[in-house]
Design a protein that fits this description.
One of its GO terms (cellular component) is cytoplasm. This protein is an alpha/beta fold. Helices cover 27% and strands 25% of the residues. It starts with a strand and ends in a 5-residue tail after the last strand. Bound molecules: zinc ion. The site of zinc ion has 8 residues, from helix 2.
Length: 346
């Protein structure tokens, strides 16, 4: 089969689309004929190399994909040939104290397909049945292949971890990115008042279309000042931050007394300065969140398949142009998801 792959870490020129041995499904796995796959910032980090993660080379990247089941391992009874499926990339051990407590995303051995082990940006992928979600036949391949990682992440952040309530105020940073655009839609669905930041008028218009009550161009004004203006110096109940160093202090400064900052990533770096006085005096909560449980994945993807949530597709490229897709992510061009499809499907 043809697969996106790299044999060393580096810039986008390490990415190749080339022959790779056909995968054979183990007893608990399903062979998926991939129709569409999406990129996440994680793919850029993995390609550059992450400290502490030693990959088996060549590595096939990719955590999001959807396709058709072509073969089923002997222990699998949830799927059969011809089913449409989407990948949910979080892998847990099932036996540690956190897994046994019903918290698989806190598993001591938690890992992600495409980040720690070979992923799904290929013509075919052998995927554990536990990492697949059924997709109704009417759902477009681009939608099916691009919703899972960002919508489960944003859903767990807001609904489970931040326990967002109707009528609360939420600030979503980087509302044009994958997690941002999912968080905006989920916060509106819960019944919150949502403020969104982005870096251009075009991206702000898009946030407005998705239902943001106020939009803030962070290139033109400090977003924490804008939040104080909008809320009459009160601040917001929840900030969704996946940006890290560049926004952290302003995120904390945007919170109301007792507010919650929920974070799932740090694309601008993991070591911001923190004003600890602000945290204890205002009695703030800093909440971490990673991926989603199978139950959370089912809940949020059901709403995607029904059309309640829309993963916006920025562009669809052939897999042979995956290097270009990585560039689009790292240069923050446009909004929504970048999708790649096997050249043989186009
Ligand atoms: Zn575990």
């Amino acid at each position: 089969m043809q697969a996106v792959q790299f044999s060393e870490h580096g810039d986008t020129d390490v990415i190749e689309y080339d022959e790779f041995p056909d995968p054979e499904p183990a007893d608990d796995e399903v062979l998926v004929d991939v129709k569409a796959a999406a990129l996440n910032h994680l793919d850029v980090w993995t390609r550059r190399g992450l400290p502490g993660i030693d990959l088996e080379m060549p590595h096939i990247p990719g955590s999001d994909a959807a396709g058709v089941v072509t073969e089923v391992g002997t222990d699998v009874d949830r799927f059969e040939e011809g089913d449409h499926v989407a990948v949910s990339a979080g892998v847990s051990c099932g036996s540690c104290e956190f897994c046994r407590d019903g918290e698989p995303t806190m598993c001591v051995d938690f890992h992600i397909l495409g980040e720690h082990v070979r992923g799904v940006h290929a013509e075919q992928a052998a995927v554990p049945a536990d990492n697949l979600v059924p997709v109704p036949d009417h759902v477009d391949w681009e939608v099916a292949g691009s919703a899972s990682l960002v919508f489960q992440t944003a859903w767990r952040m807001l609904v489970t971890r931040a326990d967002l309530k109707p009528g609360e105020t939420v600030l979503v940073l980087g509302a044009s990115g994958g997690v941002g655009h999912a968080a905006l839609q989920i916060a509106k669905y819960v019944g919150a008042e949502v403020y969104a930041t982005a870096s251009s008028e075009e991206k702000l218009e898009y946030a407005d279309e998705l239902g943001a009550d106020e939009v803030i161009n962070y290139e033109q004004e400090d977003f924490d000042d804008a939040i104080r203006d909008i809320t009459g110096y009160r601040g917001v109940d929840v900030v969704v931050d996946h940006i890290g160093a560049a926004t952290w202090d302003k995120s904390l400064a945007s919170l109301a007394k007792g507010g919650r900052l929920v974070t799932c990533g740090a694309t601008t770096g993991p070591n911001p300065e923190t004003d600890v006085n602000r945290i204890f005096w205002n009695q703030l909560e800093v909440i971490g969140s990673t991926m989603g449980t199978p139950g959370e994945v089912d809940d949020v993807l059901e709403l995607v398949w029904e059309g309640e949530f829309e993963p916006r597709i920025r562009d669809t490229l052939p897999m042979s142009e995956t290097a270009r897709a990585h560039e689009m992510l790292q240069d923050r061009e446009g909004f929504g998801k970048v999708v790649v499809r096997p050249d043989s499907e186009l």
